TrEMBL record:
<dbReference type="GO" id="GO:0005524">
    <property type="term" value="F:ATP binding"/>
</dbReference>
<keyword id="KW-0067">ATP-binding</keyword>
<dbReference type="InterPro" id="IPR017871">
    <property type="entry name" value="ABC_transporter-like_CS"/>
</dbReference>
<keyword id="KW-0378">Hydrolase</keyword>
<dbReference type="GO" id="GO:0016787">
    <property type="term" value="F:hydrolase activity"/>
</dbReference>
<dbReference type="InterPro" id="IPR050086">
    <property type="entry name" value="MetN_ABC_transporter-like"/>
</dbReference>
<keyword id="KW-0547">Nucleotide-binding</keyword>
<dbReference type="InterPro" id="IPR030679">
    <property type="entry name" value="ABC_ATPase_HisP-typ"/>
</dbReference>
<keyword id="KW-0472">Membrane</keyword>
<dbReference type="Pfam" id="PF00005">
    <property type="entry name" value="ABC_tran"/>
</dbReference>
<feature type="domain" description="ABC transporter">
    <location>
        <begin position="2"/>
        <end position="240"/>
    </location>
</feature>
<dbReference type="InterPro" id="IPR027417">
    <property type="entry name" value="P-loop_NTPase"/>
</dbReference>
<keyword id="KW-1003">Cell membrane</keyword>
<dbReference type="InterPro" id="IPR003439">
    <property type="entry name" value="ABC_transporter-like_ATP-bd"/>
</dbReference>
<keyword id="KW-0813">Transport</keyword>
<dbReference type="InterPro" id="IPR003593">
    <property type="entry name" value="AAA+_ATPase"/>
</dbReference>
<protein>
    <submittedName>
        <fullName>L-cystine import ATP-binding protein TcyN</fullName>
        <ecNumber>3.6.3.-</ecNumber>
    </submittedName>
</protein>
Length: 244
């Protein structure tokens, strides 16, 4: 379970998160929707302290952190339980697909190389790229690179996987293969998935829970049938009218 309690974050005078309160159940798929600039990515990145919120509490299972007082040890602990999939994949250019996946296992998880390799091959298989283990990022399409990004997160077997607009940097024809892999992950993996995306159809099909944000607050949240088909708030209706 991830709980946000009264999370605030400003960049200078820009109040990006203005009191976020919510709970994301263990093992669920939660999609965060909302207009550009509403604070979705900042909220996602605040979970693993890639962005440090100014105020509030973040609770991940038994780890309770008062963000204003977070120690390096607490941040390390929460990072041990999370993995992130980035918009721009962030793969090491001079490492193969397999080596990119092994990196976190050997460096962060301190696994012996042989064990890391076996696990990396397993997740490569899961994202349908076992035959590209030895390819370098520049030899792969954007969609394939993002599937490696997802495999790298999966390999860590984290409690929570944070997806930061995983398809928004891709050419439209490559989006489908990444969404397919994410659907497989949602079906087959026990991790809690939190996904910032504009892919409404993905949200409809896969999400257990949708959080709709605007201007740094959660406007409403609930199951897709409720939020997408029968939104209560005017801001949600307006946002959805652009997509549906
Ligand atoms: P969203 O993901 O909903 O598009 P973001 O969380 O990326 O929104 O951004 C919310 C606001 O915070 C935007 O106005 C953005 O310009 C600002 N912002 C995000 N990151 C930074 C940063 N590192 N420095 C300054 N401003 C930032």
């Amino acid at each position: 379970m991830i709980t946000f309690k009264n999370i605030h974050k400003s960049f200078g005078a820009n109040k990006v998160l203005q009191g976020i309160n919510c709970t994301i159940p263990t093992g669920s798929v939660t999609v965060i929707l909302g207009p550009s600039g509403s604070g979705k990515t900042t909220l996602l990145r605040s979970v693993n302290f890639l962005e440090k919120a100014d105020q509030g509490e973040i609770i991940l299972n038994d780890i309770h952190i008062d963000v204003a007082k977070a120690s390096a040890a607490e941040i390390h602990k929460i990072r041990q339980h999370t993995a992130m999939v980035f918009q721009m994949y962030n793969l090491f250019k001079n490492k193969t697909a397999l080596e990119n996946i092994m990196e976190g296992l050997t460096v962060v998880r301190k696994l012996p190389k042989m064990e890391a390799k076996a696990q990396a091959l397993q997740v490569l298989h899961k994202v349908g790229l076992a035959d590209r283990a030895d390819a370098y990022p520049h030899e792969l399409s954007g969609g394939q690179q993002q599937r490696i990004g997802i495999a790298r997160a999966l390999a860590l077997n984290p409690d929570v996987i944070l997806f930061d607009e995983p398809t928004s940097a891709l050419d439209p024809e490559l989006v489908g293969e990444v969404l397919e892999v994410m659907k497989t992950v949602a079906r087959e993996v026990n991790s809690t998935l939190v996904v910032v995306t504009h892919e409404i159809n993905f949200a409809r099909e896969v999400a257990d829970n949708i959080i709709f944000m605007d201007k740094g607050v959660i406007v409403e949240q609930g199951p897709p049938a409720e939020i997408l088909n029968n939104p209560k708030e005017e801001r949600t209706k307006q946002f959805l009218s652009r997509y549906i």
